[in-house]
Request: fold
Amino acid sequence: MINHDLESKIHSGVDFEKTILTHHSKTLIVSFVNPYSYKTISRNNKIISSVDYWFSDGALLCLLLNLTRSSKVSRASFDFSSIASNVFQFSSKNNKRIAFIGGQESEINSAIDNIKNIHPNLNVVSQFSGYFDPRNTRHIANEISKSQPDILVVGMGTPAQEEFSIICKDVFTTPCIIFTCGGFITQSAIQSDYYHPLIKKLGLRWLQRAYNFKHVRRRLLLDYPSFTIKYLFDSLTSRIIQLSK
Reply:
């Protein structure tokens, strides 16, 4: 269950701005892992190694990681309760070219309209639905590359969004920071700032997502408890083995 290569690359959310929103001379991938996606990602060494920066998306995973880490990690997630505003403010202030891919056609259009309601100076240079024929993957990556984005936001779910980001990293001809964003585009299509202010203040983002999405309820009721038990068991087993040496 525990993948040490993955965990060694997970940064703390408090380090986001000084590590990510700085000048980079090459294309970078920034992605996020939570208790649901951890299992999928941990089985794919190419994704682990190709993503340059990982962050912990959610309080539960932060809690589990911090049980054994001397350098503690805090949450970072690509939504308006965390780093999305930082990215968009940085983009607007510095006139960065930004591209989006994810969601259905109607969702990507509504999401960008809603995001621009909050950040009207955002320079959106290209946008694509995340639903396309897999045979067109490299073609779409090349089309995005033609718009020479400084920032690309990819919301296609794990592992598709990481796999698409890796292809973009391979074909892009100019430096770009690529962010995966999970369900952010779908959420932003619903309203400009998806989370209610009180929900954000109380740290109950999971509750609002569970109320609105059936697949989130399944994750919370089945996948998260299962992951927690397996993770704690593996952590305890590793500790016992170390002590017995």
